[in-house]
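User: My collaborator sent over this chain with a note saying "see what the structure looks like." That's all I know about it. Can you take a look?
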Amino acid sequence: MLRASRDFESREHYRVFLRKLFDGLNAGRKTRLGEELKELRALPARRLDSSRPPIEVRVSQGSTIRVLGNTYSVDSRLIGERVTVKLFVEHLEVSCGQRCLHRIARLRGKGRHRIDYRHIIDHLVRKPGAFAHYRYREDLFPTHRFRLAYDLLYRRRPHRADKDYLRLLYLAARENEAAVDEALRYLIDAEGPVTPEAVEELVGAATKLPSVRDVRIDPVDLSRYDDLLCVRDMASSSRPPEEPSVEVTLP
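Assistant: Without extra context I'll predict from the sequence alone. Here is the result:
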């Protein structure tokens, strides 16, 4: 309501907006605040812990853990291991032994899931048949272009679509997701064949791919219009003269 829009460029931009708002609201309260500060006692000797007590869970065969009714993926190398999960307000930390392995954004509510394809891609590549019936398959499309790529692969070779798509995910996990997404954008816009080989070649080239929407128009040579005028004049001079018209008056 104050700025006529709820869209902020970033969280830091939102913090700056709140800071300016609070400074303005508190400008007339400094005298009363000074009176209250005189009565406040000293702060505690140490900072209060902002997290809940750690919990221990076992990593399932699907490379996931269940925390407070929600499901999170972890590295497939942890399957069968017991890990310690420390919950904070906005994230949770997954540790094995004394080493923190994952820092994951915390889900709100229950019955939700957050699956990172990087955690399970090694497992899926070895068993591509499991992709078709994977419970959280929709989470394995990082962007809409990956979804379009899978649909195109399925139309072209349905029997190899799962295997070819997992190769794209494996390339994104091992190389660069943004580069793979850009390669898919180029191939889809150019209506070229989307294959793991074509994407891998574009990613390996490491060059900026042009957009099919970038239309280049050469400068117009205005002298061509002079040539057209000359042709018209020549045609006019070579045309035979018109016969004079005769007016006939009827009685």
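A starting point for your reply to your collaborator: The mean pLDDT is 84.
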